[in-house]
Amino acid sequence: PRGEPLGVELIGVRKSFGGVHALRGIDLTIEPGTVHAIVGPNGSGKTTLLNVISRLLRQDEGQVILDAEDVSRAPAERLARRGVARVFQTPRLLGTSSLRDNVLLGAYTRERSGGPAIVLRLPWARREQAELAAEADRLLAGHGLAGRASEEAASLPHGEQRLLEVARALMARPRLLLMDEPAAGLTPRELESLGRLIRAIRDTGTTVVLVEHHIELVASVADVVTVLDRGRLVTSGPPQEALGDARVVEVYLGA
Ligand code: ADP
């Protein structure tokens, strides 16, 4: 069971790299069960924000609250166990392994799953492995990769590798999914399936935080859009409101 979708609260979060102020005091609430998009020009702090939420980076100041628990000092590993999964900007796949094995790796962080035993095909994990393999195949089918479970990941074109990454992240049954520019390099048709996929992920009980440049995708899938500019939060609200805000137009034109 995956449990309820996770909410996130950032309070006064600051992060600098040397003299570069990537985040200059961010206060933000991400409601559980929503698709929350983070947009803004290059260098506005979007990826840093994702890294702070997933604990790949520790903030210099401020707090990160996950579902009422202060995780300001928690390591990334602990967040994975609490149901936080991430899709990176560039696919991180095992190229010579099959699509199915790549998806199966996603089960590794599940509570009580015999992740390593399954991947190593140890005998006592056989039954669980069969169940998980069936689940992996269903996920592959849901991502337009039906019947291709035995192919090598490296044989897929870029767009399908990205969809494979999403399938692997879902295998972890995340309660919070962080996506860093999932639309980059996708064809228009793949973009459409990605949009449907993101809504389906939310509807199965997962909060989605989406860093994305593709504004049409954002407008069509996001429940809330937060706009960053030079490490500050410009506005946050429903897409029509946030993206129609005169300050946001200025942020983009002025960049
Ligand atoms: P975005 O994702 O909106 O493009 P980033 O969060 O990647 O923005 O970067 C925000 C600012 O922080 C930029 O000026 C970037 O150069 C800087 N920055 C990000 N990561 C690092 C790092 N590891 N070392 C030094 N500067 C960094």
Question: What does this molecule look like?
Answer:
The chain is an alpha/beta fold and 255 residues long. The chain has two domains: 1-83 and 174-255, Rossmann fold; 92-172, no CATH class. It is 37% helix and 24% strand. The chain contains ten helices and ten strands. It has helices spanning 46-53, 76-81, 99-104, 115-119, 126-142, 158-171, 188-203, 215-221, 239-244, 246-254; strands at residues 8-17, 20-30, 35-39, 61-66, 69-70, 84-87, 176-180, 207-211, 224-229, 232-237. The strands form two sheets. The protein has a six-stranded mixed beta sheet with strand order 6-7-8-3-9-10, with helices on both faces. A four-stranded antiparallel beta sheet has the order 2-1-4-5, with helices on one face. A hairpin with a 2-residue loop joins β9 (224-229) and β10 (232-237). The protein is globular. The protein starts with 7 loop residues before the first strand and ends with a helix. Bound molecules: adenosine-5'-diphosphate. Adenosine-5'-diphosphate binds at residues 17, 20, 22, 40, 42-48. Keywords: ATP-binding, Cell membrane, Membrane, Nucleotide-binding, Transmembrane, Transmembrane helix. It comes from Nonomuraea ferruginea.
